[in-house]
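Lab notebook, design round three. We kept the backbone fixed and only want residue identities now. Task for the bench partner: fill in a sequence for the structure below.
Input structure tokens:
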């Protein structure tokens, strides 16, 4: 094991939500925004700690492109749960703009806003060009841009020519996101909390957590490492129902494998004929950390994951076609954790 997990259990581990704001077949983005707010309000009552939204562009099945706007929508309709980005794809934005946006959000909803930053574009190269107008920036810019944002949130420096207003002095919690060891190394160096995208990129999870913990340098905001991992969960009243519902998730990732764009499709009785063996293997490899089944089955899978990783927080994403089934899945997960984590867990 990579951490001392003797006292770790699902009962004392914070649980959070990643909402990709799916557009389901036959519905619109307006419907997605309505159901996302309903989900946020319910998971707040069920004790989830955070509600994060992820930046994606030019994807027919995901409506979270204007991430900061949606964060304001969700935060405005809730009262206690932390709301943030999982994440903002920093290469698409000027650091000052992000500092101003999240400074504004923090001013509107004090003590409830998180800023998660990623270094991927969240889109293909053509879309990235449309967002930025050029692709002159490199991966090497990301650490400098993260530090620039941290400076904007710090108290005003004497003689500073550029300031984030609002934003200055607000110390908005900044997380680094990753699917490899790159983000883990940078988060460790800067003393920031780290979130790993194991819900679609499971390969480097354990090594990234090891790198983060071994190289972590305490900072003013974080005295010791704090790691979160995101997983897919489809929970239902029976194993059979959960595996049926999960076929929507499989179809969504099949789109990713094929490079096609479709709204989220309804579940099917069988995936036979919808994918070939190579595609099935690729999808299942990406979805290694997907926990599917009844409450008992999912609890066992989540507990094994916690013991193997020792993460401080688990973020759950549930990609289902039917909103009622999605709500039920999150309700079951909340019963598994049995915690009011937004009230009693460590916060940033």
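Proposed sequence:
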């Amino acid at each position: 094991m990579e951490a001392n997990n003797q006292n770790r259990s699902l009962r004392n581990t914070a649980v959070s939500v990643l909402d990709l704001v799916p557009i389901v077949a036959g519905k619109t983005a307006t419907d997605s925004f309505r159901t996302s707010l309903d989900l946020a309000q319910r998971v707040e009552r069920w004790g989830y700690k955070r509600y994060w939204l992820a930046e994606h562009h030019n994807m027919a099945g995901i409506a979270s492109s204007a991430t900061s706007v949606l964060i304001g929508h969700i935060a405005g309709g809730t009262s206690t749960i932390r709301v943030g980005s999982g994440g903002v794809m920093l290469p698409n934005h000027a650091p000052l703009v992000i500092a101003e946006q999240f400074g504004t959000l923090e001013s509107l909803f004090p003590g409830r806003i998180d800023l998660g930053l990623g270094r991927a574009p969240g889109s293909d190269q053509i879309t990235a060009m449309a967002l930025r107008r050029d692709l002159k920036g490199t991966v090497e810019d990301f650490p400098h841009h993260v530090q620039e944002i941290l400076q904007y949130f710090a108290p005003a420096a004497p003689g500073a020519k550029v300031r984030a207003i609002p934003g200055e002095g607000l110390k908005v919690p900044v997380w680094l996101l990753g699917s490899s060891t790159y983000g883990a190394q940078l988060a460790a160096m800067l003393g920031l909390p780290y979130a790993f995208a194991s819900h679609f990129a499971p390969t480097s999870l354990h090594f990234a957590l090891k790198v983060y913990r071994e190289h972590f340098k305490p900072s003013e905001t974080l005295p010791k490492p704090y790691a979160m991992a995101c997983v897919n969960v489809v929970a239902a009243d029976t194993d059979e129902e959960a595996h049926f519902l999960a076929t929507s998730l499989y179809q969504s990732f099949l789109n990713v494998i094929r490079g096609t764009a479709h709204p989220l499709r309804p579940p099917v009785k069988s995936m036979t004929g919808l994918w070939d063996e190579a595609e099935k293997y690729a999808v299942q490899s990406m979805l290694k950390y997907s926990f599917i089944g009844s409450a008992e089955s999912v609890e066992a899978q989540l507990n094994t994951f916690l013991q193997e990783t020792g993460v401080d927080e688990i973020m759950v994403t549930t990609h289902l076609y039917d909103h009622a089934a999605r709500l039920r899945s999150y309700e079951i997960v909340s019963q598994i954790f049995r915690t009011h984590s937004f009230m009693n867990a460590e916060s940033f």
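Keep this in mind before ordering anything: The longest strand covers residues 227-235.
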